[in-house]
Amino acid sequence: MTVNKKNKRVWRLYSLNTFFVSLLIFVSVLLAAIATLVYERLKEFDVILDEISTESIPAALHSNRVNSQVNSLTYLIDGLAQSSTQASRRIANREVSAKVSEIMAMIEQHGKDEYLAMHIQSMKDELEHLNRLIDQRLLLDDTINKRKTALYKSYNKIMDFMLSPNHRSNLSPTSFLWTIELADIVATASESLTSERINQVRQINELVDTLLSKQYQSIDNLPEKMKTKATQVTVELQRLLLGESGMINLRSEQLRLMGRSIGRGHFVRNLVTDIANLSEFRSYELNNSIQLETLKTSQRIKQQIKLLGLLSASAVLGLLIAVYMIRHRVVNRLNKLNKKIQSHIDGEPLQVDIRGQDEIADIARSFRYFTRTIEIQQQQLQELSLTDGLTGIANRRALDEHLPTYLQSAIRHHWPVSLLLMDVDYFKPYNDNYGHNKGDECLQQIAKILTRCKRRDEDFVARYGGEEFVFVLPQSDNRGAELVATLLQQAIEEQRIPHEHSLVADHVTMSIGIATFHYDDPISADQLLKNADTALYEAKNLGRNRFVSFIE
């Protein structure tokens, strides 16, 4: 070997590769030997496992699915029972029917269970009855609502009549008292709509009947020109409130239907619970059967494990030797490389000193090169991510990172921070008439003007978005901010970028909103921007080409 270094590298690469290939061949031969010995003994388990996988387990899974579907039916039934509209009732009924059909199909698919199918058919009949009750209740709800609307409409008509300019001045005490009694009848009748007990509704019915009788008697004491109208209203109220189709009797019928619906719903839920319990019991029996078969199989496997123990011990010994070699030749060096990488992640300088000419050393060198490349790229990406591509100044993301820092520093050092939010006036007409290229050039010129107007290194200029810019002035109060705003507008004025389509000047102008952060009354960065935006909006409302300071 005339070139020792080169030959050494070739030998080590070949040696490491040969080592793992040899280990793989050894393990493969060992596993093949074990598989050959086990094959004949496991063959007898094939029939048992086939029975479990093709009969017992599918049956158990089917039973569990049926049980799950039956349990989910409870929630659908609750949705049907609690339906508040015909549309929701129809939707809930379709969902319940679909779920019942799905359960029936599952039962028939895996061998029909007559007993379970009978229970589900009974449940289906009860669900149809429950659906009819809910339908009747909703129809009755609609009728009651119509009666209530008609009642309030009639009441409003008579009140409008009584309080009209023609009758208000001539409203006698008896007329006023009759109006009060009328309002009492309406209020008493309305109580029946909130009562949840039939006895209370009946009492309200009797009370309203009595009040209407008194109301008829009071009509005789009214002025002649009001008697006809009062009689019509009283008759209309009696028709709407009393009688078989009156609102109060309909409320009684509504409460009876609600009670029947609730009772029928409870009965159906109990029936579903019984079906679920029956399905769960069937599932329990199947699970017990599977457990017994599994136990028998497990006992036979234990016998086979004893036979294979000696061979496995030999295999383990060989693997331990291989593991030792892997740890000594591979793992220790990989751990060392990993520690170096972790140290670099924690901020320490990268020092990968893995020696050798094998694959691990190549990985270390590649990682070192890769890390250096990533660091350079990250630095470049960081700069790009914080810079606006068009204007070359900071972007919105840079503003979001720097502004909270400025505010925290202001609180710590007890100084104000002012923020100028600037918007190019009538920039959309500029873009539309001069073209987007000219629009971009305009924004670039404005960005240069803003940058030139920075008086201090700590002043911060950013493009906020579109034609909006931000100027952050640390250690500057509102007065200083207004001076800077004046300077900015003068600089824009001197530049005289042509803008024939502006409504305020023949050149580009800028509106500015100023907001100041006070350390003794701190606000968030978002709130400071909102305040500046409010001031900017006010500047636009005042005619643009001006600055306005935010005042709370």
Automatic annotation (TrEMBL):
GO cellular component terms given for this protein: membrane
Specify one Pfam family.
Answer: GGDEF
Q: Name one GO molecular function term.
A: diguanylate cyclase activity
GGDEF domain: which residues? 415-552
Q: Which reaction does it catalyse?
A: 2 GTP = 3',3'-c-di-GMP + 2 diphosphate
For this protein, the Enzyme Commission number is 2.7.7.65
* One GO process term, biological-process aspect: signal transduction
Source domain of life: Bacteria
Boundaries of each HAMP domain copy? 328-379
Statement: the UniProt record of this protein carries the keyword Transmembrane helix:
yes
Record key words, sorted: Membrane, Transmembrane, Transmembrane helix
- Where exactly are the transmembrane stretches of this chain? 20-39, 307-326
UniProt-listed InterPro entries: Diguanylate_Cyclase (IPR050469), GGDEF_dom (IPR000160), HAMP_dom (IPR003660), Nucleotide_cyclase (IPR029787), Rev_trsase/Diguanyl_cyclase (IPR043128)
PANTHER family in the cross-refs: DIGUANYLATE CYCLASE DGCM-RELATED, REGULATORY COMPONENTS OF SENSORY TRANSDUCTION SYSTEM
Show the NCBIfam families listed in the entry: GGDEF
Its protein name is diguanylate cyclase
Q: Which organism is it from?
A: Neptunicella marina
